[in-house]
Amino acid sequence: MSSVLQGFTKSLAMTFVSEIGDKTFFAAAILAMRYPRRLVLAGCVSALIVMTILSATVGWAAPNLISRKWTHHITTLLFFGFGLWSLWDGFKEGGGGSEELAEVEAELDSDMKANGKTAKDKTEDENKKQKRPFLTQFFSPIFLKAFSINFFGEFGDKSQLATIGLAADENPFGVVLGGVVAQLVCTTAAVIGGKSLASQISERIVALSGGMLFIIFGIQSFLTSVEA
Asked: Which intervals of the chain form a coiled coil (predicted)?
């Protein structure tokens, strides 16, 4: 039970500081301003849950491919590496999240122009689909767009790699549960708060907080290996 709780708390804290102010967070906030919020939230959360489960599964399988001792050492190095990386990003960042928010918004705008439809047109199309059965609504272009942006946006991300490392060292069920809860909280905040909330987030504070958290996890993991 303690192992599940430890995996849950570590994953919850790590995922929360990694996702607040992340590119997928900004994408969810912008999409929620243009499309029905429930479809955006459903698409974003579904993608992040699937990615969390996949990442934890890879981490869980890793000790079966190489020794647990080596997976523990690799996880320790990952924590220190991500910690230093985040701290470096934090010292380089400006005070707010407006730059990355503008970057994500520009990417979404260019994608929308490439598809040849305005947000208003897509919203009107989606409103017509409200009359369809409940389940078929989740196969709408908006749901799929939110899902794909968040799913592929997480590939190679620090949070994904850290989840793999954490699941290799902690109880994978606790890691998945903590990650899912954190993703749900962050994405819901982005969808409800929208662009106004996203623009108020300080990337520097988030990066520095995440860096310190990764360093703490790295020290704890190192001390665990020394005691063993």
From this structure: none
| Placement of tokens 């934890």 in the chain | 56
**What phi and psi, each to the nearest 5 degrees, are found at residue 94?**
-85, -165
User: How far apart, in Å, do the first and last CA atoms of the chain sit?
Assistant: 20
On whether residue 130 sits in a domain, the answer given is no
- Taken in order 132, 112, 180, 186, the sign of the CA dihedral is negative
Q: Has residue 177 got a pLDDT over 60?
A: yes
Count of domains in the chain? 1
In a domain, 197, yes or no: yes
pLDDT tens for 11-40 read 999 888 888 877 788 888 888 888 888 889
104: number of Cβ within 10 Å: 24
Integer Cα distance of 172 and 3 in angstroms: 9
Residue 119 has pLDDT above 60, yes or no: no
